[in-house]
Give the backbone structure.
Amino acid sequence: MPLTRKAYRAAILHSIADPAEVGIEASYEYFEDGLLVVENGRISALGHASELLAGLPAGVQVEHFPDALITPGFIDTHIHLPQTGMVGAYGEQLLDWLNTYTFPCESQFADPDHANEVADIFIKELLRNGTTTALVFGSVHPQSVNAFFAAAEKLDLRMIAGKVMMDRNAPDYLTDTAESGYQESKALIERWHGKGRLHYAVTPRFAPTSTPEQLTLAGQLLTEYPDLYMQTHISENLQEIQWVKELFPERKGYLDVYDHYQLLGERSVFAHGVHLCDDECARLAETGSAVAFCPTSNFFLGSGLFNLPMAEKHKLNVGLGTDVGGGTSFSLLQTLNEAYKVMQLQGARLSPFKSLYLATLGGARALRLEDKIGTLHPGTDADFLVLDYHATPLLSYRLKQANSIAETLFVLMTLGDDRTVLQTFAAGQQVHQR
Protein backbone atom coordinates (compact mmCIF):
# COMPACT_ATOMS: atom_id res chain seq x y z
CA MET A 1 0.00 0.00 0.00
CA PRO A 2 1.47 3.41 -0.91
CA LEU A 3 2.24 5.78 1.95
CA THR A 4 -0.46 8.43 2.37
CA ARG A 5 0.65 11.49 4.28
CA LYS A 6 -1.20 14.74 4.93
CA ALA A 7 -0.81 17.64 7.36
CA TYR A 8 -3.34 19.88 9.09
CA ARG A 9 -2.47 23.34 10.38
CA ALA A 10 -4.56 25.14 13.01
CA ALA A 11 -4.62 25.90 16.71
CA ILE A 12 -4.27 22.43 18.28
CA LEU A 13 -5.20 21.31 21.81
CA HIS A 14 -5.25 17.94 23.54
CA SER A 15 -5.35 16.51 27.05
CA ILE A 16 -2.25 14.64 28.20
CA ALA A 17 -3.31 13.90 31.81
CA ASP A 18 -6.15 14.25 34.31
CA PRO A 19 -6.14 17.77 35.82
CA ALA A 20 -7.32 16.21 39.12
CA GLU A 21 -4.01 14.32 39.29
CA VAL A 22 -1.42 16.69 37.81
CA GLY A 23 -3.02 20.15 38.07
CA ILE A 24 -4.55 22.11 35.21
CA GLU A 25 -1.36 23.52 33.65
CA ALA A 26 0.30 20.09 33.30
CA SER A 27 -2.84 18.44 31.91
CA TYR A 28 -2.81 19.70 28.32
CA GLU A 29 -0.67 20.67 25.34
CA TYR A 30 -1.63 23.67 23.23
CA PHE A 31 -0.10 24.89 19.98
CA GLU A 32 -1.42 28.29 18.95
CA ASP A 33 -0.20 27.63 15.40
CA GLY A 34 0.17 23.87 15.33
CA LEU A 35 0.71 21.14 12.77
CA LEU A 36 -0.72 17.62 12.87
CA VAL A 37 0.82 15.15 10.44
CA VAL A 38 -1.12 12.00 9.53
CA GLU A 39 0.34 8.92 7.84
CA ASN A 40 -1.71 5.86 6.88
CA GLY A 41 -4.46 6.48 9.44
CA ARG A 42 -2.16 7.33 12.35
CA ILE A 43 -0.70 10.52 13.73
CA SER A 44 3.00 10.71 12.87
CA ALA A 45 3.90 14.17 14.20
CA LEU A 46 2.45 16.96 16.33
CA GLY A 47 4.03 20.29 17.18
CA HIS A 48 4.49 23.96 16.32
CA ALA A 49 3.96 24.62 12.61
CA SER A 50 7.12 26.78 12.55
CA GLU A 51 9.20 23.77 13.65
CA LEU A 52 7.54 21.00 11.64
CA LEU A 53 6.78 22.60 8.26
CA ALA A 54 10.43 22.76 7.16
CA GLY A 55 10.88 19.02 7.72
CA LEU A 56 7.82 17.91 5.73
CA PRO A 57 8.73 15.96 2.60
CA ALA A 58 8.09 17.75 -0.69
CA GLY A 59 4.56 17.31 -2.00
CA VAL A 60 2.84 16.71 1.35
CA GLN A 61 -0.46 18.57 1.25
CA VAL A 62 -1.07 20.97 4.16
CA GLU A 63 -4.68 21.91 4.91
CA HIS A 64 -4.86 25.18 6.86
CA PHE A 65 -7.69 26.15 9.24
CA PRO A 66 -6.85 29.68 10.43
CA ASP A 67 -10.04 30.13 12.51
CA ALA A 68 -10.44 26.72 14.06
CA LEU A 69 -9.25 24.41 16.82
CA ILE A 70 -8.16 20.81 16.26
CA THR A 71 -8.86 18.42 19.15
CA PRO A 72 -8.97 14.63 19.50
CA GLY A 73 -12.25 13.02 18.47
CA PHE A 74 -14.85 12.89 21.23
CA ILE A 75 -15.56 9.65 23.09
CA ASP A 76 -19.11 8.83 24.25
CA THR A 77 -18.99 6.15 26.95
CA HIS A 78 -22.76 5.54 27.12
CA ILE A 79 -25.41 5.78 24.39
CA HIS A 80 -28.37 3.71 23.10
CA LEU A 81 -28.65 3.11 19.33
CA PRO A 82 -32.34 1.96 19.44
CA GLN A 83 -33.48 5.08 21.31
CA THR A 84 -32.50 7.48 18.50
CA GLY A 85 -36.16 7.77 17.47
CA MET A 86 -37.42 8.71 20.94
CA VAL A 87 -35.03 11.44 22.07
CA GLY A 88 -36.99 14.05 24.04
CA ALA A 89 -39.89 11.83 25.14
CA TYR A 90 -42.09 13.73 27.60
CA GLY A 91 -43.04 13.43 31.18
CA GLU A 92 -41.59 10.36 32.92
CA GLN A 93 -38.82 9.30 35.26
CA LEU A 94 -36.66 6.26 34.59
CA LEU A 95 -38.85 3.20 35.23
CA ASP A 96 -42.07 4.60 33.74
CA TRP A 97 -40.07 6.07 30.86
CA LEU A 98 -38.70 2.61 30.00
CA ASN A 99 -42.19 1.08 29.90
CA THR A 100 -43.95 3.97 28.16
CA TYR A 101 -41.40 4.86 25.49
CA THR A 102 -38.23 2.79 25.44
CA PHE A 103 -39.48 -0.76 25.20
CA PRO A 104 -42.01 -0.10 22.38
CA CYS A 105 -39.34 1.85 20.45
CA GLU A 106 -36.76 -0.94 20.87
CA SER A 107 -39.22 -3.60 19.70
CA GLN A 108 -38.96 -2.22 16.13
CA PHE A 109 -35.40 -3.57 15.89
CA ALA A 110 -36.70 -7.06 15.27
CA ASP A 111 -36.85 -5.79 11.65
CA PRO A 112 -33.32 -5.79 10.11
CA ASP A 113 -34.31 -3.05 7.61
CA HIS A 114 -35.33 -0.79 10.48
CA ALA A 115 -32.08 -1.62 12.29
CA ASN A 116 -30.03 -0.73 9.18
CA GLU A 117 -31.86 2.56 8.68
CA VAL A 118 -31.42 3.68 12.28
CA ALA A 119 -27.78 2.54 12.43
CA ASP A 120 -27.04 4.79 9.45
CA ILE A 121 -28.80 7.81 11.01
CA PHE A 122 -27.16 7.13 14.37
CA ILE A 123 -23.60 6.97 13.03
CA LYS A 124 -24.11 10.12 10.94
CA GLU A 125 -25.33 11.92 14.09
CA LEU A 126 -22.31 10.76 16.08
CA LEU A 127 -19.88 11.99 13.41
CA ARG A 128 -21.75 15.29 12.88
CA ASN A 129 -21.25 15.92 16.57
CA GLY A 130 -17.58 14.96 16.54
CA THR A 131 -17.95 11.62 18.32
CA THR A 132 -15.44 9.18 16.83
CA THR A 133 -15.77 6.39 19.41
CA ALA A 134 -18.85 5.32 21.38
CA LEU A 135 -19.81 2.55 23.77
CA VAL A 136 -23.21 1.59 22.41
CA PHE A 137 -26.21 -0.38 23.68
CA GLY A 138 -28.05 -2.27 20.97
CA SER A 139 -31.54 -3.69 21.54
CA VAL A 140 -32.21 -7.27 22.62
CA HIS A 141 -32.12 -8.22 18.90
CA PRO A 142 -28.78 -9.34 17.41
CA GLN A 143 -29.74 -7.54 14.18
CA SER A 144 -29.37 -4.18 15.97
CA VAL A 145 -25.70 -4.92 16.64
CA ASN A 146 -25.08 -6.45 13.20
CA ALA A 147 -26.49 -3.30 11.59
CA PHE A 148 -24.39 -0.97 13.76
CA PHE A 149 -21.12 -2.83 13.31
CA ALA A 150 -21.63 -3.20 9.56
CA ALA A 151 -22.14 0.57 9.22
CA ALA A 152 -19.16 1.37 11.52
CA GLU A 153 -16.86 -1.07 9.71
CA LYS A 154 -17.45 0.66 6.36
CA LEU A 155 -15.97 3.87 7.80
CA ASP A 156 -13.21 2.12 9.80
CA LEU A 157 -14.53 3.59 13.07
CA ARG A 158 -13.36 2.49 16.52
CA MET A 159 -16.67 1.48 18.10
CA ILE A 160 -17.83 -0.79 20.92
CA ALA A 161 -21.33 -2.28 21.12
CA GLY A 162 -23.36 -5.17 22.43
CA LYS A 163 -26.74 -6.84 22.31
CA VAL A 164 -28.89 -6.15 25.38
CA MET A 165 -29.38 -9.19 27.62
CA MET A 166 -32.79 -8.97 29.30
CA ASP A 167 -34.73 -12.05 30.43
CA ARG A 168 -37.24 -10.64 32.95
CA ASN A 169 -39.22 -7.56 34.03
CA ALA A 170 -39.76 -6.40 30.44
CA PRO A 171 -42.48 -7.09 27.86
CA ASP A 172 -42.50 -10.62 26.40
CA TYR A 173 -41.85 -9.22 22.93
CA LEU A 174 -38.53 -7.81 24.17
CA THR A 175 -36.98 -10.51 26.35
CA ASP A 176 -34.45 -13.18 25.57
CA THR A 177 -33.63 -16.12 27.89
CA ALA A 178 -30.47 -16.67 29.90
CA GLU A 179 -29.35 -19.26 27.33
CA SER A 180 -30.42 -17.43 24.15
CA GLY A 181 -28.86 -14.20 25.41
CA TYR A 182 -25.60 -16.05 25.99
CA GLN A 183 -25.63 -17.87 22.62
CA GLU A 184 -26.60 -14.77 20.59
CA SER A 185 -23.93 -12.69 22.34
CA LYS A 186 -21.35 -15.39 21.66
CA ALA A 187 -22.23 -15.47 17.95
CA LEU A 188 -21.88 -11.67 17.74
CA ILE A 189 -18.53 -11.81 19.57
CA GLU A 190 -17.23 -14.42 17.11
CA ARG A 191 -18.40 -12.36 14.16
CA TRP A 192 -17.34 -8.84 15.17
CA HIS A 193 -15.02 -8.60 18.17
CA GLY A 194 -11.56 -7.47 17.05
CA LYS A 195 -12.63 -7.05 13.41
CA GLY A 196 -11.05 -3.82 12.15
CA ARG A 197 -11.47 -1.32 14.99
CA LEU A 198 -14.59 -2.94 16.45
CA HIS A 199 -15.00 -4.34 19.97
CA TYR A 200 -17.82 -6.23 21.66
CA ALA A 201 -19.42 -5.38 25.02
CA VAL A 202 -21.41 -7.87 27.08
CA THR A 203 -24.57 -5.86 27.81
CA PRO A 204 -27.00 -6.87 30.58
CA ARG A 205 -29.41 -3.90 30.55
CA PHE A 206 -29.44 -3.53 34.35
CA ALA A 207 -29.76 -5.86 37.32
CA PRO A 208 -33.60 -5.75 37.49
CA THR A 209 -34.04 -7.07 33.94
CA SER A 210 -31.66 -10.04 34.25
CA THR A 211 -32.16 -13.19 36.31
CA PRO A 212 -29.28 -14.53 38.39
CA GLU A 213 -28.86 -17.19 35.66
CA GLN A 214 -28.40 -14.53 32.98
CA LEU A 215 -25.96 -12.49 35.08
CA THR A 216 -23.96 -15.70 35.70
CA LEU A 217 -23.72 -16.32 31.94
CA ALA A 218 -22.75 -12.67 31.31
CA GLY A 219 -19.85 -13.20 33.72
CA GLN A 220 -19.00 -16.45 31.95
CA LEU A 221 -18.66 -14.63 28.60
CA LEU A 222 -16.15 -12.24 30.20
CA THR A 223 -14.14 -15.24 31.40
CA GLU A 224 -14.27 -16.96 28.01
CA TYR A 225 -13.18 -13.82 26.12
CA PRO A 226 -10.90 -11.84 28.47
CA ASP A 227 -10.60 -8.71 26.31
CA LEU A 228 -14.35 -8.06 26.02
CA TYR A 229 -16.07 -5.01 27.42
CA MET A 230 -19.01 -5.06 29.83
CA GLN A 231 -21.59 -2.27 30.01
CA THR A 232 -24.68 -1.82 32.15
CA HIS A 233 -26.47 0.76 34.33
CA ILE A 234 -26.09 1.46 38.04
CA SER A 235 -27.63 3.71 40.72
CA GLU A 236 -29.34 6.06 38.30
CA ASN A 237 -32.64 6.53 40.11
CA LEU A 238 -33.72 6.06 43.76
CA GLN A 239 -36.76 3.93 42.82
CA GLU A 240 -34.51 1.68 40.72
CA ILE A 241 -32.08 1.21 43.66
CA GLN A 242 -34.97 0.21 45.92
CA TRP A 243 -36.18 -2.28 43.28
CA VAL A 244 -32.71 -3.87 43.12
CA LYS A 245 -32.78 -4.32 46.93
CA GLU A 246 -36.12 -6.13 46.66
CA LEU A 247 -34.95 -8.36 43.81
CA PHE A 248 -31.56 -9.22 45.35
CA PRO A 249 -32.15 -9.08 49.16
CA GLU A 250 -29.13 -11.32 49.77
CA ARG A 251 -26.68 -8.75 48.31
CA LYS A 252 -25.17 -5.79 50.19
CA GLY A 253 -26.27 -3.24 47.56
CA TYR A 254 -26.62 -2.51 43.86
CA LEU A 255 -22.91 -2.71 43.01
CA ASP A 256 -22.56 -5.89 45.03
CA VAL A 257 -25.02 -7.60 42.66
CA TYR A 258 -22.69 -6.99 39.71
CA ASP A 259 -19.63 -7.78 41.83
CA HIS A 260 -21.10 -11.13 42.88
CA TYR A 261 -21.59 -12.14 39.23
CA GLN A 262 -18.02 -11.07 38.36
CA LEU A 263 -19.00 -8.18 36.11
CA LEU A 264 -16.51 -5.64 37.52
CA GLY A 265 -13.18 -5.24 35.77
CA GLU A 266 -10.86 -3.11 33.68
CA ARG A 267 -13.22 -2.95 30.70
CA SER A 268 -16.45 -2.63 32.67
CA VAL A 269 -18.36 0.65 32.32
CA PHE A 270 -21.29 1.47 34.58
CA ALA A 271 -23.62 4.21 33.33
CA HIS A 272 -24.79 7.00 35.64
CA GLY A 273 -23.66 6.15 39.18
CA VAL A 274 -25.60 9.18 40.42
CA HIS A 275 -26.30 7.66 43.85
CA LEU A 276 -23.10 5.68 44.47
CA CYS A 277 -21.64 5.80 47.98
CA ASP A 278 -17.97 6.11 48.96
CA ASP A 279 -17.48 2.37 49.42
CA GLU A 280 -18.95 1.63 45.98
CA CYS A 281 -16.68 4.23 44.33
CA ALA A 282 -13.70 2.68 46.10
CA ARG A 283 -14.68 -0.82 44.92
CA LEU A 284 -15.18 0.34 41.32
CA ALA A 285 -11.75 2.00 41.37
CA GLU A 286 -10.11 -1.04 42.97
CA THR A 287 -11.39 -3.32 40.18
CA GLY A 288 -10.41 -0.86 37.42
CA SER A 289 -14.07 -0.34 36.45
CA ALA A 290 -15.30 3.00 35.09
CA VAL A 291 -18.41 5.16 35.33
CA ALA A 292 -20.12 7.06 32.50
CA PHE A 293 -21.26 10.54 33.64
CA CYS A 294 -24.46 11.40 31.71
CA PRO A 295 -25.59 14.89 32.76
CA THR A 296 -28.23 15.68 30.10
CA SER A 297 -29.99 12.40 30.85
CA ASN A 298 -29.75 12.80 34.63
CA PHE A 299 -31.36 16.25 34.36
CA PHE A 300 -33.98 15.18 31.81
CA LEU A 301 -35.16 12.13 33.76
CA GLY A 302 -34.85 13.90 37.12
CA SER A 303 -32.36 11.30 38.36
CA GLY A 304 -29.97 13.50 40.34
CA LEU A 305 -26.46 15.00 40.29
CA PHE A 306 -23.34 12.90 39.70
CA ASN A 307 -20.68 13.46 42.38
CA LEU A 308 -17.53 13.92 40.29
CA PRO A 309 -15.37 15.11 43.23
CA MET A 310 -16.12 11.85 45.08
CA ALA A 311 -15.12 9.83 42.01
CA GLU A 312 -11.90 11.86 41.74
CA LYS A 313 -11.10 11.26 45.41
CA HIS A 314 -11.11 7.51 44.73
CA LYS A 315 -9.21 7.88 41.41
CA LEU A 316 -12.18 6.24 39.67
CA ASN A 317 -12.07 6.39 35.86
CA VAL A 318 -14.93 8.57 34.57
CA GLY A 319 -15.98 9.05 30.97
CA LEU A 320 -18.74 11.21 29.55
CA GLY A 321 -21.97 9.81 28.13
CA THR A 322 -24.79 11.40 26.16
CA ASP A 323 -27.15 8.53 27.03
CA VAL A 324 -29.38 9.27 24.04
CA GLY A 325 -32.40 8.78 24.30
CA GLY A 326 -32.64 9.62 28.02
CA GLY A 327 -30.07 12.24 27.15
CA THR A 328 -31.25 15.01 24.87
CA SER A 329 -28.27 15.61 22.57
CA PHE A 330 -25.67 13.65 20.62
CA SER A 331 -23.30 16.59 21.20
CA LEU A 332 -20.59 16.10 23.81
CA LEU A 333 -20.11 19.88 23.75
CA GLN A 334 -23.71 20.26 24.91
CA THR A 335 -23.19 17.42 27.39
CA LEU A 336 -20.24 19.33 28.88
CA ASN A 337 -22.41 22.45 29.09
CA GLU A 338 -24.74 20.45 31.36
CA ALA A 339 -21.86 18.78 33.25
CA TYR A 340 -20.65 22.24 34.26
CA LYS A 341 -24.09 22.99 35.72
CA VAL A 342 -24.14 19.68 37.63
CA MET A 343 -20.93 20.76 39.35
CA GLN A 344 -22.20 24.31 39.97
CA LEU A 345 -25.27 22.92 41.74
CA GLN A 346 -22.93 21.03 44.09
CA GLY A 347 -20.77 24.07 44.82
CA ALA A 348 -17.89 22.80 42.69
CA ARG A 349 -16.25 23.97 39.47
CA LEU A 350 -15.59 22.08 36.26
CA SER A 351 -12.57 23.59 34.52
CA PRO A 352 -12.69 23.61 30.70
CA PHE A 353 -9.52 21.49 30.69
CA LYS A 354 -11.15 18.87 32.91
CA SER A 355 -14.12 18.97 30.53
CA LEU A 356 -11.82 18.38 27.55
CA TYR A 357 -10.24 15.51 29.48
CA LEU A 358 -13.64 13.90 30.19
CA ALA A 359 -14.67 14.09 26.52
CA THR A 360 -11.37 12.71 25.17
CA LEU A 361 -8.55 11.14 27.21
CA GLY A 362 -10.80 10.43 30.22
CA GLY A 363 -13.18 8.48 27.99
CA ALA A 364 -10.25 6.66 26.40
CA ARG A 365 -8.93 5.68 29.83
CA ALA A 366 -12.38 4.51 30.91
CA LEU A 367 -12.32 2.24 27.84
CA ARG A 368 -8.63 1.26 28.26
CA LEU A 369 -7.90 2.67 24.81
CA GLU A 370 -5.64 5.60 25.75
CA ASP A 371 -2.78 4.10 23.71
CA LYS A 372 -4.98 4.36 20.59
CA ILE A 373 -7.41 7.28 20.99
CA GLY A 374 -8.15 10.28 23.20
CA THR A 375 -4.96 12.26 22.51
CA LEU A 376 -3.03 13.49 19.48
CA HIS A 377 0.21 11.76 20.45
CA PRO A 378 2.23 10.40 17.51
CA GLY A 379 1.48 6.70 17.03
CA THR A 380 -2.20 6.97 17.99
CA ASP A 381 -5.16 6.62 15.61
CA ALA A 382 -5.82 9.78 13.59
CA ASP A 383 -9.30 10.37 15.06
CA PHE A 384 -9.66 14.14 15.38
CA LEU A 385 -11.96 17.13 14.90
CA VAL A 386 -11.85 20.61 13.47
CA LEU A 387 -13.96 22.98 15.61
CA ASP A 388 -15.03 26.18 13.82
CA TYR A 389 -14.68 29.44 15.76
CA HIS A 390 -17.23 31.06 13.41
CA ALA A 391 -19.85 28.28 13.49
CA THR A 392 -22.61 30.69 14.59
CA PRO A 393 -22.75 34.50 14.69
CA LEU A 394 -22.98 34.50 18.50
CA LEU A 395 -20.06 32.08 18.89
CA SER A 396 -17.96 34.14 16.50
CA TYR A 397 -18.72 37.39 18.35
CA ARG A 398 -18.22 35.87 21.79
CA LEU A 399 -14.86 34.30 20.90
CA LYS A 400 -13.55 37.71 19.78
CA GLN A 401 -13.78 38.67 23.48
CA ALA A 402 -11.86 35.58 24.63
CA ASN A 403 -8.27 36.24 25.61
CA SER A 404 -6.98 32.78 26.53
CA ILE A 405 -7.31 29.20 25.29
CA ALA A 406 -9.11 28.40 28.58
CA GLU A 407 -11.80 30.97 27.83
CA THR A 408 -12.04 29.92 24.17
CA LEU A 409 -12.48 26.29 25.20
CA PHE A 410 -15.13 27.12 27.80
CA VAL A 411 -17.13 29.20 25.30
CA LEU A 412 -16.97 26.36 22.74
CA MET A 413 -18.39 24.05 25.42
CA THR A 414 -21.21 26.37 26.49
CA LEU A 415 -22.27 27.81 23.12
CA GLY A 416 -21.09 24.99 20.85
CA ASP A 417 -23.08 22.11 19.37
CA ASP A 418 -23.08 20.04 16.16
CA ARG A 419 -22.68 23.22 14.08
CA THR A 420 -19.30 23.84 15.71
CA VAL A 421 -17.89 20.61 14.24
CA LEU A 422 -16.54 21.61 10.82
CA GLN A 423 -14.88 18.29 10.00
CA THR A 424 -14.52 14.90 11.67
CA PHE A 425 -11.70 12.47 10.85
CA ALA A 426 -11.49 8.77 11.71
CA ALA A 427 -8.32 6.77 11.00
CA GLY A 428 -7.11 9.76 8.96
CA GLN A 429 -10.14 9.82 6.66
CA GLN A 430 -12.67 12.63 6.63
CA VAL A 431 -15.97 11.07 7.75
CA HIS A 432 -17.96 14.28 8.23
CA GLN A 433 -17.85 17.71 6.59
CA ARG A 434 -20.37 20.31 7.75
About this structure: DSSP finds 17 helices and 16 strands in the chain. The chain has a mean pLDDT of 95. Residues 112-128 form the longest helix (17 residues).
